[in-house]
């Protein structure tokens, strides 16, 4: 491996390498720690074997990790050259096969079968692909025409086939774009939190002639903000042309297709779909102005036939745009507009490389960056330009030249007093230019600017504005705010009115917070029965679960999104296995608590699917989204530290088996412990004979009393030694800690009321201020008591809590916590009983 030279260390390009190396090391260290802590280790069967799981497998990656822990192996979250011995995969796309042709790529069965045989089996019998044996096809054969497959389309996978999900996501441009956008937002978060990060580019600027005081640009003294917007020019095309320099200056497009050399489709199907598209968009045009995408689809319906390619163009060069070609257009239509159009394939690894170089270059100068996507970002340059005493246009020239030198790709840069003006400046700068929109020029520019250029103005909003006679920002300025809010809504009306004057109050967002995690498939969905549909739903739920786990999140809201074949659309689509003309359907549900469990997600979406009662043969797209996200990182729950009673007892106690009479007695207690007098129908009780009434009441009271005394005595005995400790630190060190990893949600819910009261007493005595997580736990516990109609226990706990606070921690923080619990409890009481619990207003918390 080559050592990084000094230049690389200075220009900051090592950031990503160091970041990933540290991340890999941390994950391996975490795996080793988990292996040492594992109490269920079986043997060292996989000693000296390190695996990397690529894509979807059965068993899952998490299950394979667990198996490697139990059997002495090593698991790598990322492929590590020289250390990873085997790649585990069920299938791989062509692009990856070319990169790892000489590696050991084996099926997951190799691990499970080796465990069953209690020996490491010969991996060559489990190779996914091999160019060394005659048992399987060589890698090179995968990239050659398959003469055995008479019908090429029959070789293409659909959603019912094994490995479809991984193949789809490995080749989906939209998936890669969305994932890369999220990656860079997280990357900015990590770099901003890295205290060792150096602004090497800024240091270089400070050393040159620009840092002289007399060169300080005076206009900066009166400038409130200088926001920079960077957008790479024709990103996919620019990256692809680095290896296809002979195509520079020609009309070029990036797509999966290589031209119009497609199968001869059924002409009737194509004609039928064209008619369906026409009908749909004619209906759309009656109520709204069509978007660019709508116009494209409406246009192709007039001039395409069964021999034209329906592959979509992801990006096209400026030469192609001059011929009328646009992003999202079908290849068949584009070739009719520009027969000399050239095509180049996707190169996702190259896109990622160039994107990281772009971000790392800007990170040399400032950390105040908002990541937008893989090829676009905002940066607040106010402090930077003031610090280095530089004009925005001078800095743009230096930055653009550096990006071009490192990536070989051009970019455009715009500056303005806010993000809106910076974005508009970039539009004026394109292609391959720079522009600074100063305050003095804003009025003139905005007055004649079409309203469609403003962010947030889509087809629907554009139609409403046009119906109001508003075409330009000048028209917007002359329309009263009240009129706009009446027609567009309060928030949108106010925003557009401000934007029309060039005003934008929205600040840059440096810290990325995820709002949802989803997985969507709109290709290859062809189910013949509900079993196939349900199997795919389960796989998609597992995919979403995996994504939630990877970002350490869980969600409370589950939404199922469907694309359903339109009534007039043909069953077969013009684009093989495409979605065709569809209606959008979505329905969501809110869970009682957040989850990332694939089984729970699958259960909920299956319920929604069955309730919608849609013919599975009409499904053309399926998506699962989880929102209302919460962190899944286990926090230190201080309240649970005091719950010592549920820990395992010493061996001496465990060896003493209870007698049969004791077991019977405990069963009786368990039967009655959740039953209270409030749960018994009073009219039913009164109708019983007196002796039976007395027996029931006595039995309940006796059981409750016995249960209360037994549990309180046991808990007091277990904590008597602890309470002798005076030092708080010593106390915590000697308490039997019961953390979240040892306690299930059910255990937390079914702690007895007497145990909770003692737990709360110790909590208040040792904590200066309550943690919100602990307050939430108590609130949830009381809610479960309400659901179970255990109002006696509820009142006792609340009154005990109040007494403990008065005696030990009569502070604002504890009083506020108490009132928060009371208010939430009263709300839940009102929901169930349409009344309130009689509790005195003990604290006056303002």
Automatic annotation (TrEMBL):
<dbReference type="GO" id="GO:0017125">
    <property type="term" value="F:deoxycytidyl transferase activity"/>
</dbReference>
<feature type="binding site">
    <location>
        <position position="231"/>
    </location>
    <ligand>
        <name>Mg(2+)</name>
    </ligand>
</feature>
<comment type="function">
    <text>Deoxycytidyl transferase involved in DNA repair. Transfers a dCMP residue from dCTP to the 3'-end of a DNA primer in a template-dependent reaction. May assist in the first step in the bypass of abasic lesions by the insertion of a nucleotide opposite the lesion. Required for normal induction of mutations by physical and chemical agents.</text>
</comment>
<dbReference type="InterPro" id="IPR017961">
    <property type="entry name" value="DNA_pol_Y-fam_little_finger"/>
</dbReference>
<dbReference type="Pfam" id="PF16589">
    <property type="entry name" value="BRCT_2"/>
</dbReference>
<keyword id="KW-0234">DNA repair</keyword>
<feature type="binding site">
    <location>
        <position position="376"/>
    </location>
    <ligand>
        <name>Mg(2+)</name>
    </ligand>
</feature>
<dbReference type="GO" id="GO:0006281">
    <property type="term" value="P:DNA repair"/>
</dbReference>
<keyword id="KW-0227">DNA damage</keyword>
<feature type="domain" description="UmuC">
    <location>
        <begin position="227"/>
        <end position="458"/>
    </location>
</feature>
<dbReference type="GO" id="GO:0046872">
    <property type="term" value="F:metal ion binding"/>
</dbReference>
<keyword id="KW-0460">Magnesium</keyword>
<keyword id="KW-0808">Transferase</keyword>
<dbReference type="InterPro" id="IPR025527">
    <property type="entry name" value="HUWE1/Rev1_UBM"/>
</dbReference>
<dbReference type="GO" id="GO:0003887">
    <property type="term" value="F:DNA-directed DNA polymerase activity"/>
</dbReference>
<dbReference type="GO" id="GO:0003684">
    <property type="term" value="F:damaged DNA binding"/>
</dbReference>
<dbReference type="InterPro" id="IPR043502">
    <property type="entry name" value="DNA/RNA_pol_sf"/>
</dbReference>
<dbReference type="InterPro" id="IPR053848">
    <property type="entry name" value="IMS_HHH_1"/>
</dbReference>
<comment type="similarity">
    <text>Belongs to the DNA polymerase type-Y family.</text>
</comment>
<dbReference type="GO" id="GO:0042276">
    <property type="term" value="P:error-prone translesion synthesis"/>
</dbReference>
<dbReference type="GO" id="GO:0070987">
    <property type="term" value="P:error-free translesion synthesis"/>
</dbReference>
<dbReference type="InterPro" id="IPR036420">
    <property type="entry name" value="BRCT_dom_sf"/>
</dbReference>
<keyword id="KW-0479">Metal-binding</keyword>
<dbReference type="GO" id="GO:0005634">
    <property type="term" value="C:nucleus"/>
</dbReference>
<keyword id="KW-0548">Nucleotidyltransferase</keyword>
<keyword id="KW-0237">DNA synthesis</keyword>
<keyword id="KW-0238">DNA-binding</keyword>
<dbReference type="InterPro" id="IPR043128">
    <property type="entry name" value="Rev_trsase/Diguanyl_cyclase"/>
</dbReference>
<dbReference type="Pfam" id="PF16727">
    <property type="entry name" value="REV1_C"/>
</dbReference>
<feature type="domain" description="BRCT">
    <location>
        <begin position="41"/>
        <end position="128"/>
    </location>
</feature>
<dbReference type="Pfam" id="PF14377">
    <property type="entry name" value="UBM"/>
</dbReference>
<dbReference type="InterPro" id="IPR031991">
    <property type="entry name" value="Rev1_C"/>
</dbReference>
<protein>
    <recommendedName>
        <fullName>DNA repair protein REV1</fullName>
        <ecNumber>2.7.7.-</ecNumber>
    </recommendedName>
</protein>
<keyword id="KW-0539">Nucleus</keyword>
<dbReference type="InterPro" id="IPR012112">
    <property type="entry name" value="REV1"/>
</dbReference>
<feature type="binding site">
    <location>
        <position position="375"/>
    </location>
    <ligand>
        <name>Mg(2+)</name>
    </ligand>
</feature>
<dbReference type="InterPro" id="IPR038401">
    <property type="entry name" value="Rev1_C_sf"/>
</dbReference>
<dbReference type="Pfam" id="PF11799">
    <property type="entry name" value="IMS_C"/>
</dbReference>
<dbReference type="Pfam" id="PF00817">
    <property type="entry name" value="IMS"/>
</dbReference>
<dbReference type="InterPro" id="IPR036775">
    <property type="entry name" value="DNA_pol_Y-fam_lit_finger_sf"/>
</dbReference>
<dbReference type="InterPro" id="IPR001357">
    <property type="entry name" value="BRCT_dom"/>
</dbReference>
<dbReference type="InterPro" id="IPR001126">
    <property type="entry name" value="UmuC"/>
</dbReference>
